[in-house]
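It would be a great kindness if you could assist me with a short task in structural biology. The matter concerns a single protein, recorded as an amino acid sequence and a row of backbone structure tokens. Could you please explain, in whatever detail you think fit, how the structure tokens follow from the sequence? Thank you for your consideration; the sequence and its tokens are set out here:
___
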Amino acid sequence: MKKFIKKKYIVITAVFLFVGLLAFRPIDKYFEIAKSMELYAQVYREVNQNYVDDVSPSTVMKNGLDGMLKSLDPYTNYIPEDEIEDYRTQNTGQYGGIGVVSRTYKGKTIIVKYDKASPAYKAGLKIGDEIVEVDGINIQNKSTKEIDKIFKGQAGTKMSLMITRPGETTRKKFEVTRQNIKIQDVPYSGMLASEVGYIKLQGFTRTASKEVKDAFKKLKKEGMKKLVLDLRGNPGGLVIEAVNICNMFVGRGVEVVNTKGKVKDFNRGYKTMGEAMDLEIPVVLLLNGNSASASEIVAGFLQDSDRGIIIGQRSFGKGLVQIPRPLSYNSQVKITTAKYYIPSGRCIQAIDYSDHDAGALHDRMADSLKKPFKTKNGRTVYDGVGLDPDVPVKARKLALITTTLLEQGLIFDYVTAYVGKHKKIKPAKAFQLSNAEYQDFVQWLKGKQYSYTTKVEKSLKALVEKAKKEKTYSKIKAQIESVKKKMTASKAIDLTTFKAEIKQQLELEIVLRYYLEEGQIEATFERDKEVQEALKLFKNMARYRKLLAGK
């Protein structure tokens, strides 16, 4: 009986959710929605009563809701009660836990990252440790999501961890007390050159603007007169934090962004509320294809206002705004309610999701369809494709062998062994592997299994299959075999061909073990094309000013 009542309430909840949406629909849609609601309830009832196996009401309902929302856009989502905490963590950057980032590889849970303030670091855990048990529960072969829930909990509660450490034969037991962990929006700030400061911003939670301002003040005291703000890989977050960061470089009362949607009550303009921290400091913003949402608001505003220069690659192109709406049973639905527009009047949304037909393909806007807009100084900028950089830098793409060594954990495992043999290394900025040490890595790989298939090999395989179907394979067999041999020979020397980039990945992982994330960021500067381009531009301020003037 209780089970039936629970299922009934779930259905009723879904009905009220749909009915609530009626308020936002025109009258001529009422019958269509009511009809769909009735059919949905009937199908649910029939499946629940007659399906051959027992079904989970909550799972069936969530799948139904997810399917409905999936037809709209990727950002409109139903958030059930058991995922609310994860959603809050995204907005606040806070959670109760031990402060580790783990990776599940071949059924093993390995610690891959933490910082010095984390309970895990203070307790003596190390990157490379395999966590075997938590509070006596074996966690091998559990999913990353399951393990994440085990690690998280109320601050002050204790966890008993059983770990195995590479190079040691006996297991170790650690008692770790959970704390309130704050994911830093600014993991690093420092001086790139005598007058050039650098701030890495990786998120827009509720403390983002405060962290950027604190870093800015610190760098000013260290002599900063020019700023590089790194937004690469930043997926965005809270709009108000983006506005507050823009306010650092422009005065009070300036509109940074405005939102427009179907429901007029949700439309609003966001203006700066305080005094600027520095109206004159030259600013360079680093962007790439994973810079989105609030990142694009900051970069787009400063570009439209001719207050900063963008270096890097075209940004992601997310010009949509979501708001959470509360539902019953402590759940929520996050709905795309508007598009946002930056000062030039452009919306940088790159994909049109207005076609809600099932199976509709949503392509990015073609460059030929871009509309021109003007910045404050009259520079031409475009909508609908993300943000184009003022100074383009070609994106670096790792070779297939390098990504294979990273994805299959071979670089990680070798570095774990390396750390066991070296108590210390040179400072992060100065550390480099010797050629002899790289050859040691090559020798170590000989006893390991790894494989990868190139695009050419995939094309050859497809060609062979097609030729056999058409019965023409015998005519081209000799040529195919010749190309295969050449590809095999080429792959055999990939470790030499791509030595420089493989070596760099090894160095970055080694630096992480000794100097954590701050050291790893510092170690990239010398070979970071975008950072070096920013330093080059700051040495030529005449060019910087010409770019802002559109000359």
